[in-house]
């Protein structure tokens, strides 16, 4: 049995401390779940076999299985279960892929999948002290990056993701100017796609937020050139050529029945591992492996989506994948512009990929993401 993406909807991606920051992550995830039910009245909610959501933090209000909590808040029957998965930046794609595997295996017929992250509301945590009656207590931020790191890890493994991506890019001769140019491209294409109405049917308004808040129309390389390096004093990675901190949620209806006009069909998915400090080029191995597994060549792929954690990361992957035409990558912008609410980002690129293929008349597309701690994921979809 094939697995089809029937419909999808997401919230706008709010900026840090922006228009969605007052919404708990379980409430945030419930919004697109409920909207999917409204958009598909033919679907009996009691027939949904599972709800699978990706969520990266899990340390605050999204603890205790945010998928199950969000399903209940969305009004789904108590008989519909939910499970939360964490593959860091590819968590939401993992949720969609797991939904497809359940359907292909015959374990489910209809699944709601997607992801959520409220980075604005990520809490500080207080580690349990190693001894009784400690004299000091240190709060640890859970918003992004490593925390409570195991001392047995090699030091290079726990270097910040931005610095790791920067080092790999430097190996390939990818400097500040190229990264800033890619960031400007991302904002220009994202703004143009919004103005062209390409997200009108996919992004639901939430309160007064009707558009992704991190897109900066008019950004140019002169502006970005004035920003300080974010990770090392002489580095090339800055806040301007990195994805920002965001809040958002996305949901996808996955089914074994194609219906009249599905968004697309899940063809194959691959996750690979690399040394943690080289996470930024892990998508390279994932892309090559998923194409081989799908029986496809690079020339068979019409559209590519690489989740833009950093411009350094995308450009490093493209350096190692010369077969990928750059003009077909992130054709309506990427996470540097849209934002990167960790659990919700990968579903966004899968949704956008299907919609772009539909506008082009169909074909194959590949969505790829780098993942912290040294992993990469690639998903192949097909649109008739």
From TrEMBL:
CDD domains: thiolase. It comes from Stackebrandtia albiflava. It is an enzyme of class 2 (transferase). The active site is at 89 (acyl-thioester intermediate), 340 (proton acceptor), 370 (proton acceptor). Residues 262-382 form the Thiolase C-terminal domain. The keyword Methyltransferase does not apply. Pfam families: Thiolase_C, Thiolase_N. Keywords: Acyltransferase, Transferase. InterPro entries: Thiolase, Thiolase-like, Thiolase_AS, Thiolase_C, Thiolase_N. GO terms for molecular function: acetyl-CoA C-acetyltransferase activity. It comes from the Bacteria. Residues 4-254 form the Thiolase N-terminal domain. This is Probable acetyl-CoA acetyltransferase. Belongs to the thiolase-like superfamily. Thiolase family. Signal peptide: none annotated. SUPFAM superfamilies: Thiolase-like. Its EC number is 2.3.1.9.
